[in-house]
Specification:
alpha/beta, Spore Coat Polysaccharide Biosynthesis Protein SpsA, Chain A, two-stranded parallel ribbon, 8 strands, globular
């Protein structure tokens, strides 16, 4: 990877979006690769993994995660705001303390010390954090709600409106 180059780990479903990003950034700056290509070329460097479906993650969050301790993994998370219930046989039994729950969002920092034995699941950040926990300590950094994962253009528009409104209210 050359200086200033951005690697995009893609699967078949996200290849079209990666093509759009490559067109926007320029082919000399963005290179879509498969998960196997990414991991094979990773040798002894720390990687900041960012999910393109978290497009409004602020630059400060990316910097905070990237500045984590070099020997530790760092993952961004959002607190759970929904009420979570347990159920058995269609009967609600209790409430789970949501303060003990979090939703992994981008970015995730993979330290260089993590071995290159088997690759992590690069397109599922929650599974990636489980994979990292089996190999090293993972520090969690709380992210703002704007860093949430989106599912369509309507979700992006909604987050942009929320961002616009919070700027006006302050």
């Amino acid at each position: 990877m050359s200086d200033g180059e951005v690697l995009g780990v893609v699967d078949e479903a996200s290849r079209a979006a990666a093509s759009d990003v490559a067109h926007t950034l320029g082919p000399d700056r963005f290179r879509p690769v498969s998960a196997a290509q990414w991991w094979a070329g990773r040798a002894a460097r720390a990687d900041l993994v960012h999910d393109a479906l978290c497009p409004l993650a602020p630059a400060e969050l990316l910097r905070d995660v990237a500045a984590g301790p070099p020997q530790r993994a760092v993952a961004a998370y959002r607190p759970v705001t929904d009420t979570v219930k347990t159920a058995r046989d269609d009967r609600i039994e209790g409430t789970i303390d949501r303060d003990r729950l979090g939703i992994v969002v981008a970015p995730v920092l993979i330290p260089r010390e993590v071995g290159t034995d088997e690759p992590p699941p690069p397109l599922d950040l929650a599974r990636m954090v489980d994979w990292l926990r089996a190999r090293t300590t993972v520090d969690l950094v709380r992210s703002p709600s704007l860093a949430r994962r989106v599912h369509d253009l309507g979700s992006v528009a909604l987050l942009e409106c929320v961002d616009e409104m919070t700027r006006r209210v302050r």
